[in-house]
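Retro notes, item 3 of 5
We never archived the inputs for the calcium ion complex last cycle. Fixing that now. Sequence and ligand:
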Amino acid sequence: MKAQRIILDTDIGDDIDDALALAVALHSPEVELHGVTTVFKNAPRRAVLARHLLQTFGRKKIPVIAGCSKPLLQPFEPGLGSQFQMLEDDVWNESGHAVDFIVQAARVDEEPDPENLLTLVPIGPLTNIAVALAREPELIPRVRIVLMGGQWSKPAAEWNIVCDPEAAAIVFNSGAEISMVGLDVTMRCCLEAAHIETIAQKAGASAKLLSELIRLWQRDSQHAPVLHDPLALLTLFDDCVKFEDKRIEVALCGEERGRTIIVEDEPNARVAVDVDAPRAVAAFMSRVLPK
Ligand code: RIB
Ligand code: CA
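Structure as it came back at the time:
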């Protein structure tokens, strides 16, 4: 079967799971990583970190493109996580914008091929994706979106949605094919100390870098990595997650702002409702580093 062409749209550098998802994408023959786009707070610095990871993993030809740093309306606190400490040079001099890259990659001038749609995998706030869909509606029949974000089983907002609720509302109302992998399933997929030790024991520069990123992140977070973002990626080729068609509405007002609520109406997304967590963790461990 042909590899699925994907763009990973990431807020790499705060939580550790974006780097883990990128590593999985690089070691999964079922996907062809067409590019990495960055988003939120300081997209250029995130691009430097993503490129550093790609270089270390021997994949520096994969394009990295910085996108929107500012959410559409939602204010944000500046400041990035501790993983950036490992960068000696964190200046991003590249031109080009993630939104242009996404539009070009979707080949809007050509007939859509339903058998081979470009897959967008947003694992951060949805700003880049919303701006791309709003600027170029021709994208809608030419992409499918598999996103990590949201939560329907508890009355609380999830980070990627609450950081840019307007962007999330644009995406969910766009009519694009969407799969939502939310906290309802990702919170059940955690790494244990033994998994982290297995990664640390692997030889090579890639393992060394991932271990160092995990160490820096754990120094601040004090807990084990949760496989939020890798799980969204794994659903592209592994049946560890069960989906059901639902309609998701993004609350934009009051105390519910940022929540993803299921409403009784025509479905607009495939929503993750259950996960085989041991299978997902095993699939992650088998792909996070080269054999
Ligand atoms: O809520 C989990 C999401 O927020 C993940 O994408 C994680 O990386 C953080 O950005
Ligand atoms: Ca993320």
